[in-house]
Amino acid sequence: MKEVYSQIGEYCLSYAKIVLTRAMRVYSQIAEYCLSYAKIGNKSLPAKFNMFNMYQQQRKDIYSLQFQSFTLILHKIPHGYYHRINRTRMKIRKIMTLPLVPIARNFGFFIFMYVLGIVCAICTLPNTKGAELYSNLWLELFADDYIACVLLSLVPGKVRPWIKAVLYFILYSIAIADVYCFSKFGSTINPSMLLLLGETDSREAGEFLRTYLTPEILQGPVGFVVGVIILHTAWGLRRRIYKLFGYRRRMLMLGRWHRWRARWFKLMPAAGIITAVLAIVAIGMSWSNKQGCHKLMTAKTVGEIEHLLTLTGHGNMYLPVYRLAFSIRSNQLAAKQITTLIAAADKAKVDSCSYASPCIVLIIGESYGRHHSSLYGYDVDTNPRQRKLEKRGRLIKFTDVVSPWNLTSFVFKNIFSMHVVGQKGEWCDYPMFPELMRKAGYHVTFITNQFLSQAKEAVYDFSGGFFLNNPVMSKQMFDSRNDTLRPLDSGLLKDYKRIKPEIGEHEFTIFHLLGQHVNYRQRYPSNQRHFWVSTYDDLRPDLNGKQKRILSDYDNATLYNDSIVDQIVKLYQRRDAVVIYMPDHGEECYEGNRGFICRNHSSAIDYDLAHYEFEIPFWVYVSPLYAKRHPQMVKEIKAAKNKRFMTDAVAHMLMHLAGISAPDYHEEYDILSPNYNEMRPRLLKGHTDYDKLREKVKKLLCLQTLTQ
Fold first, then answer.
1. Scanning 38, 252, 462, 502, which has the fewest C-beta atoms within 10 Å of its C-beta?
2. Judging by beta carbons within 10 Å of its beta carbon (0-12, 13-18, 19+), is residue 119 exposed, middle or buried?
3. Which of 315-319, 415-419, 523-527 has the lowest mean pLDDT?
4. Domain range spanning residue 171?
């Protein structure tokens, strides 16, 4: 048998030298198989390889006949014609298989990076009802992976392994960090996390590593990423693992491998066409998302990024490496504005301060529209305590107040800055009003249930709080602040009691509530539910059961907010204090026939959107002692209650209450000043004039009434 396989191998090698076609490869492979089996000897072979036994019986006759027939065929066909046909076929085949070349050259990279992307997407899927994977994940990941392979194929072969090694290290490291952050902190890599990382020193970093980086992390989602790394490593060492097997086993494996290659060789043209079609479809389906991501990465400010994120069809940073790049970009933009803010703070001056109001409190609510306040006529009694204060003459209700934006972060930038909408420059070109309060001699306290460096709400909290949480800016603005987020706003009262001993004679305190932020059901204690689905059977018969339940949750959250605000007021009712309440913006909860909750972030603003999302409650509480000692100030507050006002100018009102004179204070923006410019355009989102919009609707309604 050894001689038989040797002869067969020799015959096939001879054919391979003669034939100038695809048959050359076939005969060469047969020769390789036969010579391998000749080395094995007369040992028994698997049944599936007994095909070679026929060569032992008929070796001379069969091969002589084959050789003669093949020779006759070659003599009958003109060599040039045959060569041209073969060359055309090879060119067609080469073109058809060309789309496979990038994958073939980077097979391991393509397979394992695709698997890594899928694993990261699954491991970072929120554990909430209705959470789904990115709809275009499979196709877009294929497109990204394929394009990466194409680029790698353009790199010289000697350099390519080193580039891939660097990419493996970067991509796997980012993936582990992303999945770990999600499993431990409930959020993937985001700008807030990078901000925290930049503020971490070596000691804190060491403590973090000792606390969190333990072997137990491999039992969670991180273990799946590590599993992909192990499989990839095994793939890279496959040749060395192959050599660990015995000679006979290696030959059998080699035979199987060559048979698989032969079959795959036949399928390559079809596979090439499928790959090309799939790549074109994947790129086409992913184009809109790539455009959205490009807009996010090329935005000029953090605020612009957040605004883009509120629009439908915004870019989805679905891979860890994309999220990291986005976070780095956001921090770069934030750093520029922080530099500007610090420069503005250094230039800020206070000429004088009379301490007209020794104790000033600003309560900033969340997602609270005026149309859901019983203080303003809502049919459901959501503000019983505030209404009592109004009846006692302690609460002065303002009737015509709007918010400049329906996004918390934008509102905070507008209300904290001395800049107002329409004024020259940007918000960050002006000092923050807490800076002026501190320079005037007030002890400034900031107690928030949102804007802490907890990295929970990705870019939204980052956009609203990066300037508040910056160490330099925070030190310039606040003397005291809390450091813990609470599940309910009642926890802020505990924070205040802890901080209170630090507060001096002249106090300015800001309470920033979680209020009625979605999810409404989580904004009030379960045992303090007063409104039910049945409450709205007569009030809102147009809503179904689920919608009524959500509406009841929102109103219950509003009622709970009323109790929290009342408790804050009680802290100051025996002091010489004035308390201002205002939410950041309004909120929709199945208003009219609009059929949705939360907010519509469309750039175009109609009257319904302005009415529900920008009109807000705004009131001032004066304690009995304050009313007694400052009758003129109380008179000024009451005189202003029906004037037009937008909360971007609340800083100038606070300056008036404190009695601060400063270059950045302007009377025309101060609603308590006799020189207040009530006709200043109230521009919603910086472009829509609210008063013109309202006047237009009023004229239209009057016209409809007359025609009827």
1. 502
2. middle
3. 315-319
4. 102-285
Lookup result for tokens 């290659």: 261
For 64, residues 6+ apart whose C-beta sits below 8 A from its C-beta are none
pTM for the whole structure: 0.77
Q: 10 Å Cβ neighbour count for 181? A: 19
Contact 402, 690 (CB under 8 A): yes
The b-or-e profile of 138-155 (16+ CB within 10 A means b, else e) is bbbbbbbbbebbbebeee
State the amino acid at position 464 in one-letter form. Answer: G
Last residue of a domain, one of 226, 258, 285: 285
Which amino acid, one-letter code, is at 421? V
Cα angle 418, 633, 643 (rounded to 5 degrees) comes to 65
Per-residue model confidence as pLDDT tens digits over 614-660: 999 999 999 999 999 999 999 999 999 999 999 999 999 999 999 99
pLDDT at 119: 95
- Which residues have C-beta within 8 Å of that of residue 569, sequence separation ≥ 6? 389, 579, 621
| CATH number for the domain that contains residue 666 | 3.40.720.10
Distance between CA 215 and CA 213 in Å, rounded?
7
Asked if 45 and 126 sit in the same domain, the reply is no
Q: Are 430 and 417 in contact (CB under 8 A)?
A: yes
Q: Mean pLDDT in the chain?
A: 84
